[in-house]
Amino acid sequence: MRRFVIAAATLVGMSFLLAAGAADAGPVRDMYGSGAYGLPWNAGKSAIEAKYPGGKWDTDEKGHDRYCAPSTQTLMKLPPPHQSKELCFLIGKDGTLAAATAVLNPTLPSLLAVVNRCRTNFGDFDAMLREEGAIQSSFNAQLWSKDAPYIVVVRSENDSDGAPVRVTFTVADEANLYTEGSKKVDNRPVEKK
Q1: Under DSSP, is residue 85 helix (H, G, I), strand (E, B) or coil?
Q2: Which residues pair with 166 in a beta bridge?
Q3: Angstrom distance (rounded) from CA 163 to CA 99
Q4: Residue 119 phi/psi, 5° resolution?
Q5: CA 100, CA 82: separation in Å to the nearest integer?
């Protein structure tokens, strides 16, 4: 009987340790340090086109080459309503993959699902971007940048009523592409005096 109790206690203890380990938020580097969406960070244009055919090349607002292709991808094990509908890949200064952006359906539930899953996986965001001085910003972005140069950005572009018109989830290995103008945030509780 004593062996049974010891064996049962050991199994229960191990299951608690395994459950606690699964609940820990994993850093961005652990999840995306080797690449994103089946592409390594050193992938060039031809590797991106081969993996995601049927896309189009253009340039972003900063002049970086960008390739966008229709693609349904599961994001961080979220259910199907929150999958991507398009992937866009940005080429960095070194001619390789610098960022991968999943474009989602522009809905508040998709935005909240992705932000909440990021908070579960990576902890609280540590920086944000929004229109300076605006009461209702035309865009908001939460950044997880503690593992720079690897970062995650969840961005929402909004209409005049504040409803999302574009929701994106970006992973990058060149943090400076997205951190310019961001404000650090502190999520620690404030002590009352």
Answers
A1: strand
A2: 157
A3: 26
A4: -65, -35
A5: 17
Q: Are the CB atoms for 175 and 148 separated by under 8 Å?
A: yes
pTM: 0.79
Residue-level pLDDT, tens digit, the chain, 193 residues:
444 434 333 333 433 333 333 333 347 888 888 999 999 999 999 999 999 999 999 999 889 999 999 999 888 899 888 889 999 999 998 999 999 999 999 999 999 999 999 999 888 888 888 877 777 788 888 888 888 888 899 999 999 888 899 999 999 998 778 777 677 776 555 566 6
Determine, yes or no, domain membership for 174: yes
Structure tokens at 46: 């031809």
Distance of CA 81 to the CA centre of its chain: 17
Count structural domains, the chain.
1
Does residue 162 lie within any of the structural domains? yes
**Residue 185 falls within a domain, yes or no?**
no
Judged by DSSP in three states, 44 sits in coil
Domain membership of residue 81 (yes or no) is yes
- Residues 179, 127: Cα–Cα separation, whole Å: 8
Query: Which domain does 37 fall in, by range?
Result: 27-179
